[in-house]
Amino acid sequence: MSSYDPHRWTSHLFDVEGSMVREILCRVLASVSWSIGVVLAYQFGPESLHRISIPPTAHSLIGTALGLLLVYRTNSSYDRFWEGRKMWGGIANECRNLARQTGVWLAADRPLMQEVIRWTMAFPYSTMQRIRGAAGIGTVLDGIDEREIQRVEASRHVPLAVARNITSRLLLARQRGVIDGLQLASLDNNVQLLMDYCGACERIRTTPLPFAYAVHLRRVLIVYCFTLPFALVKDYGWTTVLATLFISYILYGIEEIGVEIEDPFGFHINDLPIRSFCESNEFVLSEIRDQIDPI
Q: Model pTM?
């Protein structure tokens, strides 16, 4: 994710990276080239070509409908982006709560406590790998048996396997008498919430905007931008080219922003910095894992 100061316009006003300029450049140039052809035909073609001009009012009505479609598109995409951010905030909070309770309640069995926290640190990484379609846990697990790590990485759902390892160690702590039933239930609730947040991220990742809506919006957008010169050429002449440039840049840009933030879990500059979240969580939890006096 790109960091910027929202109060300083000059710091990012002319940035190209992350601004969708590269993504929409070909579409904008195609619209502008078409507008040049329309103006040339109207200005220098035979008198019969003057009939290519269409009433601006009819085109404005299409523009109103297109504006509503674009607003819905960007709002839906931002809802997905923000929900993804909330889910990762929830993962971080539950990892900290789980480590906080484990660091105190399992202090009598320090090796077991450290194992629980190590697997808790691995959960965000494994979730990141899962929603990005990558294999493995995504991080190095020191102090864990290599064969157990291989079993987890070979499972069909790695975050679930990580959560199972956390639960198995909490149950072992209960069997050893380190924690009681109420403490086990409290810790297990944290693990359950971690899986809920993982499932929510998977839902966002695997459920794109309905195909029919995306296709219809793009068709309307293309029709609007390519018929725009016909509505402007009679009154604006060569200024039609400049107007087409600005309007197509704005409309194509809005649509592309919706596409960019629809799936916030990728590697693009506008996606969530998931790996940074994982590393920050690991740094915080490592203090509890390595503490000498837990109380």
A: 0.87
